UniProtKB/TrEMBL annotation:
The gene is hisG. PROSITE patterns: ATP_P_PHORIBOSYLTR (PS01316). It is found in: Cytoplasm. It is an enzyme of class 2 (transferase). This is ATP phosphoribosyltransferase.
């Protein structure tokens, strides 16, 4: 029988779209028709389970799924025997404590003896213990931000990204206790055959991730500006320079970091570059 690797992804929610996009960008195609809870790839030995994110650590720990994509917050909260093997760079958020806007807050000790509502009792409990604060934790599974407004708790501990949910519920963020992003988790002790498939998958993910942080730029420049342009363009390898038909001019191509983008473009213009074109890169394989 053919060996295949089984991956659990969130069925619906903050992680699902980006998880499926990443898998597709790795050239792994599958059909996840509406309502389907299981699917198989047509061109890679991979099977998909579409689940609630909270259940994924348990499935991976039991070996029902070999891999899973979840938030680091859930990976740590559930405390299951799973290995975090790769940070995926999306669904970035933080787990924070928040109190009603009108409440004066001077520090974590203010929550001593209070009630805190959260879906993350383990992470919160650990943080309070480290801070030497004793508060009662009220576990609720969703819509946590409602709790102070209905007299259920003095504070909440929930996921924050833009902060707009806190704002619209009259709350203010007072402590950030855990930083999270989507991660790939794996069951410990995968067979050699499955490990080989996982390595192939991780190789493709690396190529996709690397490309996302880079841009490909092309420009025309007078030959007397080329030395300065070469100095401006970062990176290990020198840019590709091709003479143009128009005498005294060249075409320059290079890969730059997304983070340095605007500084580099400005410096190139100052150096004399013209007609600068910028394009995304789909994959980068070394
Ligand atoms: N606003 C946000 N911005 C970025 N990432 C987020 C945000 N909210 C949650 N996340 C991350 O995405 C994960 C899934 O969030 P989501 O809100 O979809 O979970 P859920 O409601 O528990 O879903 P499920 O129905 O699968 O149990 C969280 O554990 C967290 O890591
Ligand atoms: O800081 P913000 O950008 O407002 O994001 C934070 C909100 O996002 C998540 O909920 P989500 O919208 O995924 O809904 P859910 O409560 O149904 O999980 C999280 O539980 C917060 O409520
Ligand atoms: Mg959930």
């Amino acid at each position: 029988m053919e060996t295949y690797i089984r991956i659990a992804v969130q069925k619906k929610g903050r992680l699902s779209e980006d998880s499926l996009r990443l898998i597709r960008e790795c050239g792994i195609r599958f059909n996840n028709g509406k309502g389907a809870l299981k699917a198989k790839s047509e061109d890679f030995p991979m099977e998909f389970l579409f689940l609630r994110d909270d259940d994924i650590p348990g499935y991976v720990a039991d070996g029902v799924a070999d891999l899973g994509i979840i938030g680091e917050n859930v990976a740590v909260e559930k405390g299951k025997n799973i290995e975090v093997i790769k940070e995926l760079g999306f669904s970035k958020c933080r787990l924070s404590l928040a109190v009603p806007r009108e409440v004066e807050y001077n520090g974590i000790k203010d929550l001593d003896g209070g009630h805190i509502a959260t879906s993350y009792p383990v992470l919160l409990g650990k943080y309070l213990k480290e801070q030497g604060v004793s508060a009662s934790i009220h576990e609720i599974s969703g819509s946590v931000e409602i709790a102070p407004g209905i007299g259920l708790a003095d504070a909440v501990c929930d996921i924050v990204s833009t902060g707009s949910t806190l704002l619209s519920n009259g709350l203010k963020e007072v402590e950030s206790i855990f930083k999270s992003q989507a991660v790939m988790v794996a069951t410990p002790g995968l067979s050699a055959e499955k490990k080989a498939l996982l390595d192939k998958f991780l190789f493709r993910i690396d190529a996709v991730q690397r490309a996302k942080r880079k841009k490909y730029i092309m420009m025309n420049a007078p030959d007397n500006a080329l030395d300065e342009i070469e100095r401006v363009l970062p990176g290990a390898k020198s840019p590709t320079i091709t003479p143009l038909k128009n005498k005294g001019w060249s075409s320059v191509q290079a890969v730059i970091n997304e983070d340095d983008f605007w500084e580099v473009i400005e410096a190139l213009k100052n150096a004399g570059a013209e007609d600068i074109l910028v394009t995304p890169i789909e994959k980068m394989v070394f």
